């Protein structure tokens, strides 16, 4: 069973903000594999289904970004999910908007959602798809909680779409092949 978690903040005011790139990508992936994210449990809004004969859970934590690990802890404890079957979708200021980076491990890079997940998993070695939002010119908090507009929105939308397609490619192939294909774009 795969557990796929998109990092983001819940609530209307946070929809389609840069910090919710993980939510946007997981929603697009859910559409690709025909899974509805409409159930509540595990401190999350979630959906589950089968893809390529494997059960998958799609989680959108309802804990705010800084406590994303709490939702992950609940589901992996219940289902005894090993770390190698977890994939995290997360916004990344160190990647250009519209681009993605797939990684097997790494530090949080200052991202509080990743810090929370690392704390729960007790390791930095887990799969992640980092969705580029670029660096802010000024206040990083206002930047990540802001919504991209105009040309930037088109690139942001391209990035979340690319992340969802890469996620499907991972499940169709494997993470290593996906890294080779998508990290070079």
Report on the architecture of this protein.
The chain has a seven-stranded mixed sheet, with helices on both faces. The chain is globular, with a radius of gyration of 15 Å. The protein has 185 residues and is of the alpha/beta class. β2 (39-41) and β3 form a beta hairpin. The mean pLDDT is 96. It has helices at 21-32, 68-79, 112-121, 140-144, 150-172, 175-182, and strands spanning 2-6, 39-41, 44-51, 54-61, 86-92, 100-105, 125-132. It is 38% helix and 24% strand.
Mean pLDDT: 96
Low-confidence stretches: none
Instruction: Name the helicity range.
Output: 25-40%
Largest sheet, if any? 7 strands, mixed
User: Based on DSSP secondary structure assignment, what is the total number of beta strands?
Assistant: 7
Cα-to-Cα separation, first versus last residue: 29 Å
Strand/helix succession: EHEEEHEEHEHHH
Bulk shape: globular
How do the strands and helices of this protein lay out in sequence?
Elements: E1 2-6, H1 21-32, E2 39-41, E3 44-51, E4 54-61, H2 68-79, E5 86-92, E6 100-105, H3 112-121, E7 125-132, H4 140-144, H5 150-172, H6 175-182
Parallel strand pairs: 1-4, 1-5, 5-7
Antiparallel strand pairs: 2-3, 3-4, 6-7
Helix pairs in contact: 1-5, 2-3, 5-6
Name some characteristics of this structure.
38% helix, 185 residues, alpha/beta
